[in-house]
Each structure stands twice: as C-alpha cells, then as structure tokens.
Amino acid sequence: MSRFEILCVTMHQKDFSKTEQMNIHSDVVFANQCDVTSYDEKEFDGHKARMISTQTRGVGVNRNLALTYATGEICLFADDDVIYRDNVEQIVLSEFDAHPDADVIIFHFDTDSAQRRQRAYPKTRKHGRFERMPWATFRVAIRSSSVKKANIWFTTLFGGGCIFPSGEDSMWLNDAKKKGLTFYVSKETIGTVSFEESTWFTGYNEKFFYGKGAFYCATHSKNIHLWMLYFAWRTRKMSELSCSKKIKWMKYGIDGYRKLLSYDEYISKMENN
Predict the structure, then answer these.
(1) pLDDT per residue of the chain (273 residues) written in tens, 0 to 9
(2) What residues does each domain of the chain span?
(3) Range 4-193 classified under CATH 3.90.550.10
C-alpha cells in the first residue's frame, strides 16, 4: 500500500501520456472509459500508473471503478483536465499528517474561468456540519480506509454520461457528511483546472434547471419547493430565464427524476403528447 495515490477519471486514452500532461509525480489510477476492456501498468520515476479501461459510461461508474482499485492510504480524486503542482503529494500528505482526525480534506485550485472560480480558504480548518459544500470532486482528498469503512460510493444517475447531467459530487459529499466523516478545508493550492470545455455545462438554460430539479428531488425531497425557490432567486443574475420559468423546468426535472427520463427523453415525450 502506497501512502498517496491519485484516482483520475478519463476517456478514450490509449497510453499514459496523461501523467505528463497533468504533471503527476506519484502513484495513479486511471479509470478510462473507452471502446475496449483492458488493464495496463507502467512504472515511471519510481511510481506506478495503472489504467483500467472499460466500455462503461457515466462519471459515477468511473469514479467507483477508480476507488475500487485504489491502494493508497491517502487518495486524491482527479479529473483529467487538471495540472498539478510539482509537490502535490507532499502538500496533501502534510495536511493529513497535521490533522490526523481528518477523513476528507478539500484543496484549492486556480482556474482560467472567472465565472467558475473555486472558493479559497485563508486557513486550514475543520468544516462545520451545516456549512455549504461548493466543491467539485477534483478538490477532494480522502483517507481511503474511512471512506471504504463508511461504504460511500458515487451515484450512477447523476454526472457526465448519466441520465442527469450533474450533482454526483454534491451527493457524495452529503453522503460522507451523513456517515459522520470529518471534513477539513485547506488553505493550500495544489494545481490549476481548466473549464474551457465541459461535458455537461452548456449555460444556465432549461436543461440546467431540469437537472437541478432532478437533483433536489433526489436529495431534498422533504423541502424541495423551498430549495427551488432559493435556487431560482440565487441564479437571478446568471440566467435569462425568469424565476417562474426556472421553477417550471425544475418541476419538469422532478417529474423526470421520478420517471428516470433524461432531458432529451422528457422533451421528446412532451412533443409527442
């Protein structure tokens, strides 16, 4: 068992060139969704890269696959569009060593997107139970034994390549909090991330709010209408849609979630009725 390992989801890789592109200097597992099924390994600079290629689809399936193959004591979730600092392993391990009660630590990334800047924290501290968790999965480092003991996995309904386009990260974080895992937020920046291309985000449009409705139905069924009102108001400067139209599309998303219909399937059904 290594002390540190990166768990990266990717697609259509034919070699290990991502280790250089992402500036990886540690053990790494690539969960690679493509058109073949295979297992490959590569030794580099005293580290091991493993590539698990499958014909599955959906980011949740892929993250679960990477987590299944994980052998690191401390693991860092990754997307393949991040570029790490040279000493990322040292930074992450130092934070876990300094906070031995931490099960999950959130790290900061710089980004090229003014609209989707990642929230930074001025100091490393424990994260409160009821504080917001505005974090993408690539910011999350875990003590793998804690996550496996708590039996926490990613949903296969939400996220890129799934029926509903996003929300798998928030659902995983909520599950981890409910299972009693201890969270810290770190002051440390460990890399940069690009948002030039997105597999799911096409703007604050009807499809986006449809997905939000499905997400709230899955996670906040008891007070779903309050969440919809809040989110329609919170995005008032982000979308050209009126609040009433946002709520309408979120309600469609609720119906779609109950019927397990994607946005395109729901639209097709509406047009045929």
Answers:
(1) 689 999 999 999 999 999 999 999 999 999 999 999 999 999 999 999 999 999 999 999 999 999 999 999 999 999 999 999 999 999 999 999 999 999 999 999 998 765 566 788 999 999 988 888 889 999 999 999 999 999 999 999 998 889 998 889 999 999 999 999 999 999 999 999 987 665 557 778 999 999 999 999 999 988 999 999 999 999 998 889 999 999 999 999 999 999 999 999 999 988 887
(2) 4-193, 206-272
(3) yes
Residue 186, classed as helix, strand or coil, is strand
- Provide the token pair at 136: 């993408």
SS3 content of the chain, % helix, strand, coil (to 5): 35, 25, 40
Our CA angle for 193, 7, 9, nearest 5°, is 65
DSSP states of the chain as a string? Answer: --SEEEEEEEES--SSTHHHHTT--SEEEEEEESSS-EEEEEEETTEEEEEEEES---HHHHHHHHHHH---SEEEEEETTEEE-TTHHHHHHHHHHH-TT-SEEEEEEEES-STTPPPP-SS-EEPPTTS-----GGGEEEEHHHHHHHT----SSBSTTSSBSS-HHHHHHHHHHHTT--EEEEEEEEEEE--SS-SS---SSHHHHHHHHHHHHHH-GGGHHHHHHHHHHHTTTT-SS-HHHHHHHHHHHHHHHHHT--HHHHHHHHHH-
Q: Give me the DSSP letters along 12-65.
A: S--SSTHHHHTT--SEEEEEEESSS-EEEEEEETTEEEEEEEES---HHHHHHH
